[in-house]
Amino acid sequence: DVQEWRVAHVLEANFEMIRAEVMATMENGSLLQEGTEDTEGLLRSGQWTELNLIFQGVAQSPNSKLCPKTVALIEREIPEAASMVRGAVKLSVLTPGTVVRPHHGPSNTRMRVHLGIRIPAGAYIRAGDPSE
């Protein structure tokens, strides 16, 4: 239950700080300039840009310097995310109308958390089989 999950509480309690840092990277153009396009071939249409802040347990300089408070928070309060050698802490930007094909990871060795910063009306993430 997400209502009782410590990770969700940490992210929600620090949402304003996280949003301020992320939006600053959007407004000054650094997130889109430093980010990379979808590297896994998951797009059906649109544009998906990602910026790794922590990758396979290592803070990614200079990317991590774009959101230093957020990276410090993750390292301090969610060390299991910061130290995952099979995962990443990243910022993702999907342009309006982007469609990502259904997908899953190669294993269940990592947690997946999405914290929406600026979500347009009608946008959603579907998890699981839509026929269920």
Give a quick precis of the structure:
This protein has 132 residues and is of the alpha+beta class.
Describe this structure in words.
By secondary structure, this protein is an alpha+beta fold. The protein is built from 6 helices and 6 strands. It has helices at about 5-15, 15-25, 30-35, 65, 70-75, 80; strands spanning about 35, 45, 50-55, 60, 90-95, 100. Strands 1, 3, 4 and 5 form a 4-stranded antiparallel sheet that branches. It has a two-stranded antiparallel ribbon with strand order 2-6. A hairpin with a 2-residue loop joins strand 3 and strand 4 (about 60). The chain is globular, with a radius of gyration of 15 Å. The model has no long low-confidence stretch (mean pLDDT about 90).
